Write a sequence for this structure.
C-alpha cells in the first residue's frame, strides 16, 4: 500500500517535489530514475505518474518549485526583524546553501536536454539579484552601513556580472570550484576587497590625488 494513499493530492505532490528536487539537484537529470524515486517515497510508479506525466514533466515542476522556494526564502530574510548585518549574512548563507545543492551534472544536463529551463533559471537568478541584492544595497546606504555616495545600482550590476561570469558550468569546471565556494569568493572580494590592510591607505591617497587633478 502506498504511504501517500491517505494524503491529500496537493500534499502528496509537494512531498514528491521535495524528494525529486533533492535527487535532480544532486545527481542530475540522467541520474534520476522514476522507480527509485517511487521506492524512496514509498509509493508505486503508477501513483508517481498520476501526479506527473513524465520525468521531464516532473523536472519542469521541480525547477518551478525550487525557484519559488528560493524567492520565498529571500523575501523572508529581507522582511525579518534582525538587524541589517545579520540579515545580509543570512542572505549570503541562504544563497550559498542553495548553490551547494546544485550538482554540476544538473548544469550539464539542463544545458544539453532542457536549455529552456536553464535559461529560465538564469533569468530568475538575474531578477533576484537585481531586486533583492539591490534592495540590500539601498538599505545599507540609508542605514550608514555602506558608503553614502555609493552607486548602488552600479554595485548591483557588478555583482550580477560577477555571479553570471563565474557561477556557470564552463567557469566552474575550468576552475574546479563548487558553486557555493565561488559565491563565497565573490562576496569576499566585493565586501572585503583584494588589497591588504597595509596597502589600503596608500591606495586611498593615490585615488584622492588623482581626483584632485
Amino acid at each position: 500500500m502506498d504511504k501517500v494513499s491517505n494524503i491529500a493530492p496537493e500534499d502528496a505532490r509537494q512531498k514528491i517535489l521535495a524528494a525529486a528536487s533533492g535527487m535532480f539537484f544532486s545527481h542530475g537529470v540522467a541520474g534520476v530514475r522514476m522507480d527509485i524515486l517511487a521506492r524512496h517515497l514509498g509509493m508505486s510508479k503508477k501513483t508517481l505518474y498520476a501526479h506527473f506525466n513524465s520525468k521531464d514533466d516532473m523536472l519542469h515542476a521541480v525547477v518551478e518549485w525550487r525557484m519559488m522556494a528560493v524567492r520565498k526564502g529571500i523575501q523572508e530574510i529581507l522582511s525579518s526583524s534582525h538587524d541589517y548585518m545579520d540579515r545580509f549574512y543570512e542572505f549570503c548563507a541562504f544563497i550559498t546553501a542553495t548553490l551547494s545543492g546544485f550538482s554540476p551534472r544538473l548544469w550539464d544536463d539542463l544545458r544539453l536536454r532542457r536549455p529552456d529551463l536553464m535559461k529560465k533559471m538564469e533569468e530568475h537568478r538575474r531578477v533576484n539579484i537585481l531586486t533583492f541584492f539591490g534592495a540590500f544595497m539601498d538599505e545599507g546606504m540609508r542605514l550608514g552601513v555602506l558608503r553614502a555616495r555609493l552607486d548602488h545600482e552600479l554595485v548591483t550590476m557588478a555583482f550580477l556580472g560577477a555571479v553570471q561570469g563565474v557561477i556557470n558550468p564552463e567557469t566552474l569546471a575550468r576552475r574546479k570550484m563548487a558553486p557555493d565556494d565561488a559565491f563565497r569568493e565573490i562576496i569576499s572580494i566585493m565586501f572585503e576587497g583584494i588589497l591588504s590592510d597595509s596597502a589600503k591607505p596608500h591606495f586611498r591617497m593615490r585615488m584622492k590625488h588623482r581626483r584632485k587633478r
Observations:
- The radius of gyration is 21 Å.
- The CA atoms of residues 41 and 94 lie 27 Å apart.
- The chain has one domain: 9-212.
